[in-house]
Amino acid sequence: MPVYNLIELELDDYEENDLVLDTIYNLSLFFENSTNCTCHQTPRQKDLRICFEKVGFKCFFERYFELKALEEHELELFIKLQINDYLLSTLQNHLQSNGLTEHVYGNTGHASKTESRVFLEFNITFSIKQFLIQYGTVHEFPSPL
């Protein structure tokens, strides 16, 4: 196991024990692979540093222990809240940058449903209705009227 300088990692508040050293090692392995960070791969992203470099090792280290301490239902709730916070901030940013915009539905440019409908004449519909009423009466179905 490699040797880590806790002061250099801003972890001087922590005791150098197996749990801390194992966690540092595992997080270091995770962040050595830059493909584990997808936040810098968005097209509009100007800061090309990976999240470990942006946020700092200490924040990830502390958050790791906070999340490990949660029970399963608490962890699920935490993840759902993070997603909802992200969606809310995305909607707020869109509203601020674009204002209120009209929603354009995917059916634009296609024939409307009313143009493709077949209209029946009254004579045909009346005779069908009469047949259904008589059939229901003969076979003792309840009247739909």
Give me the number of helical elements.
Answer: 5
How far apart are the termini?
Answer: 83 Å
Indicate the overall shape. Answer: elongated
Radius of gyration: 32 Å
Q: Could you give the count of β-strands?
A: 0
Give a short overview.
The chain is mostly helical. Helices cover 53% and strands 0% of the residues. This is 14368_t:CDS:1.
List keywords for this structure.
145 residues; mainly alpha; 5 helices; 53% helix; elongated; 14368_t:CDS:1
What does this structure look like?
- The protein has 145 residues and is mainly alpha-helical.
- It is 53% helix and 0% strand.
- The chain is built from 5 helices and no strands.
- The protein is elongated and about 90 Å long.
- The termini are far apart.
- The model has no long low-confidence stretch (mean pLDDT 79).
Helix and strand layout, with pairings?
Elements: H1 18-32, H2 51-55, H3 57-69, H4 72-98, H5 122-138
